[in-house]
User: Which sequence fits this backbone?
């Protein structure tokens, strides 16, 4: 496999990761914003006890939670991919001899070069570890977004934080409206 083909394959796998994460995150956030039952999340804030008034989100406000939740999930997947790559690389370095690599690839092992430095990893082993780690990352992302146990384990904190921020926003807008200090540009957004 040439370096160009490797880059295209990695790009395709990363796009697959994004295509899996973003729609699932949008779906997760849509089902979170149906009811304002976030009073318990605002107990230690100045918004505790303030009656909420729901208003439409501006374009930036509607995009922001999606981007934040997707970024959190992408960072988690990236950490998982790096850890998986490191495990495969360590096991490959321990288990694969230069003679075995030559037998499998048909060429002599070549040290992986990165920014002019020789890394202690064979180039073919690097490619295999990278592909396996990216596939594992896609599987991790799909399982965290489809399985309720994984979703609650990995995404419940960010979902609670998003609900808390949205609830605080509704109460903040309500407070501004009740005090008569609503900025003019918000008058057409706030119902």
Assistant:
């Amino acid at each position: 496999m040439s370096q160009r083909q490797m880059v295209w394959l990695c790009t395709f796998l990363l796009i697959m990761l994004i295509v899996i994460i973003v729609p699932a995150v949008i779906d997760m956030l849509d089902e979170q914003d149906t009811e304002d039952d976030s009073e318990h999340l605002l107990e230690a804030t100045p918004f505790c006890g303030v009656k909420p008034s729901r208003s439409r989100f501006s374009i930036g406000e509607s995009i922001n939670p999606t981007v934040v939740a997707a970024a959190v999930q992408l960072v988690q997947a990236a950490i998982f991919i790096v850890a998986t790559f490191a495990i495969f690389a360590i096991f490959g370095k321990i288990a694969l001899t230069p003679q075995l690599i030559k037998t499998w690839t048909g060429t002599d092992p070549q040290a992986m070069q990165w920014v002019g430095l020789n890394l202690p990893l064979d180039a073919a082993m690097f490619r295999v570890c990278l592909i396996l780690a990216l596939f594992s990352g896609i599987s991790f992302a799909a399982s965290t977004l489809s399985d309720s146990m994984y979703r609650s384990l990995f995404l419940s904190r960010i979902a609670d934080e998003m609900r808390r921020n949205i609830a605080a926003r509704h109460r903040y807008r309500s407070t501004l409206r009740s005090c008569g200090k609503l900025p003019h540009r918000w008058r057409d957004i706030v119902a």
Notes: The first strand starts at residue 111 and ends at 114. The chain has a mean pLDDT of 78. The CA atoms of residues 14 and 156 lie 24 Å apart.
